Amino acid sequence: MSAAAPQVSRRAFLQSSLTASGGLLLQAALAPAAFAQDATAPPNPLGLYLRIEPDNRVFIGARCPEIGQGVKTSLPMIIADELDAAWTDVTVEQLPLGLDFSGATPQWRYGPQGAGGSTSIPGAWSDLRQVGAQARSLMRRAAAARWGVAAESVATQDGHALHPDGRRLSYGALAAEAAALPLPAAPVVLKARSEYRIIGRPQKVVDAHDIVSGRARYGIDVYEPGACTAVMLRCPYFDGDIAGYDDHAARAVPGVRAVVVVPGPKPGEPLTANLATGIAVVADDTWSALRGREALRVEWSRGPFAHESSAALDRQCGLLLARTGQIVRDDGDFTAARAAAARVVSARYRVPFVSHAPLEPENCFVHVQADRARVIGPLQQPAGAQRAVHLVTGIARPAITVEMTRSGGGFGRKLTNDFVAEAALISKATGLPIKLMWTRSDDLQHDFFRPFGHHELVAALDAAGAVSGWTHRLASASKYYRRPNMKPEDLWTAELYPDDFPARLVPNYRLEWHAVTSGIPRGSWRAPAHTANAFAVQSFLDEVALAADRDPLALRLAMLGADREFDYAQHGGPKFSTGRLRNVLERVAAAVGWGRALPKGRGIGLAAHFTFGGYAAHAIEVEVSPRGELAFRRVVCAIDCGQPVNPLGIEAQMQGGTIDGLSTALNLEISIEGGRVLQSNFDGYPLAAMAQMPRDIEVIIVDSAESPAGCGEMGIPTAAPALMNAIHAACGVRIRNLPMRDQLRDALRA
Amino acid sequence: MRFTVNGVEREFAGDGDMPLLWYLRDHARLTGTKYGCGAGICGACTVLVDGQPQRACLLPVATLAGRAVRTIEGLGESGLHAVQKAWIEEDVAQCGYCQAGQILAAAALLERRPDPSPEDVDTITNYCRCGTYARIRRAIARAARELSAK
Ligand code: FES
Ligand code: FES
């Protein structure tokens, strides 16, 4: 974010008040001035964080967008536990974007509101507990006053205050009195771990009933009065443009109201708004808009990347890796270690571009009026959506309201608000309230793809078989796309995380990066570079073990060594613990029965990795038939994400991450020909359905008192290398080029 | 032409080429049926037509004359269907977007095969991008037990 990134207010954290119905409302202490002056502001009956009604119902605001990662359940659990509410009394409601612009810098009224980088839980851990604890303190003091006893003698449980003699009063009955009391002057002492009653216990998705009955509201379900539906035809060529078009037939389609050109950024411009030039068709309903789009005749100019292809990018990587690139970490003397080595092992891996493909494609409702705008959508970065609308309309940010619906997946795609900017441009051009719909083809053709790269790994082994030198050489197209303000020598920071395993565990260690030139848009795909790097590193470890005639588990444990902590300067730090990584690895190895004799055609693979503050490992047992058919026999994963907040949610995220990792490694690649993406629907980008995936995925959750990390991204990076290690163990075929597709079958037939 | 949606008689005089999906969403405002691909692949748009699971994105409204469509909103005759309840019990949903289609596909499977084998369950080809497949299997098994106990 820019220098004007919102700050979390530390001035005065909370204020309490009485609701119209006689309840307690606890909210952040900023005056909601910006919203109050705006007639289109969404009603916010919830207040900011927490409301307790006289009938003892507890309403908790969910500040982060819910994209399937479960924060709408887990964050309120944190408040409810410190409050000692009964979880069954709690109703969770989604909060809109709450940015306050009354001060010198924008302030988060409810705390940070985003879904990315597995940050929601760690970001909320201390402040949300304090919210719950302060409310509980008010309840105890209100009860103490009523009973004429000392506040310290009042206990709380399940939404009630308890008198030492056994009498009880519900929070609801105390709410009005509690609202009249001053808030604690200093932060309240938080519960000890042993006192948690909601945190750490399995809680189901709060919206489950609405979801299974079809009532949950996603972006695509927004039908505002008077709104028209828009679809766009975008230039399929990277940085291409419109050479000419004819919209007569499109305008003649019944139901079509308008056709407007939506200009994209010029090549080289920073990405601040929409992605590609296109033409929007605005109609009364989706079908008319789609038919209108089909009737458009457009000629494209193919732009500066017209010759780009996947094959050319592969050649480019080969040429780059033949040279020396940018050395971004260089411990000891790798060249000397290599020269002195008893053995040198090397291998190259290829990781393709892949797409986020959330099942709900991008869409957004935007209504731009003269001096204000309203946005409703499935957003991962609502503040960014507000900024994008501001940039393309000039409307001041305080006059732009943003509401988040549930989102049918995100995986990083909806971190970029290009689709919001498009909807704003179309609404501004037509004066209409617009729901912009993206089709699947739009989504696959115009994504910010996970970067592609070739990885070369080289290990030097000494006479004892220990790893004395290690180098990881990567040629990739940096995730930092259209960032003209970024220095070229910093582009590698999105591709290699220099403190990742095995940094500091191998004395002579070097990381080298080569910039691949490509016009394809790139961005953050769930667990960004960890998916590519863990695949290469954890596959290579098995290749090293084989060359050194060592057991793959023993080699990993030997490299991790004794339990100790290293500084970790990238996202997920500040520390990396070898012991915690070792523990998850040992847990999955024990669960899967590592080392036991297996029938012919069976194999087990392992992998472990540290991602954004969480430690994860996979053990996968597969069977490979003589004809190369793959079957999963057992999949076990372990996660140490600190104090588990919602074990049911953590299990879901690990299972989902595993499926994402496996499906992607087996099937998925975005390929380029003639300066555009080839895939345009799921026929060319086949996600795994049930039949291809493991029937069960066992999840071990490490019980830990460490402060919690998120868990939305930890399940992916180790799934693919564990699978490929298992396949190698089963049949001797090493898959180094993702996706696997028919490679296994072809190798065994040969 | 006329057909029924969740037991309610509907009359349609518009463009018969319009896929049922867009009729349900934009016109009947039954938004539980989702769009995922428009190509008959992902199953997010699954509905039951005369009891059979169908991809609503590929079904022109003109083909529906006299037929009975059931969507997620009308699955439970009174309250939630056993499959929906099992989905809640097994905490299946992550983003939840695919789940209406999954539930209808599962309900249709259980009509055909009250005690489905894992291979029977494999015939459900609906995508779940969030990867809830393991819990979907558990939920189907739970619903099968509940339904057979009745
Ligand atoms: S939307 Fe109909 S199958 Fe995907
Ligand atoms: S729960 Fe998200 S697609 Fe299935």
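qc> Chain A touches chain B through 64 residues (CB under 8 Å).
qc> done
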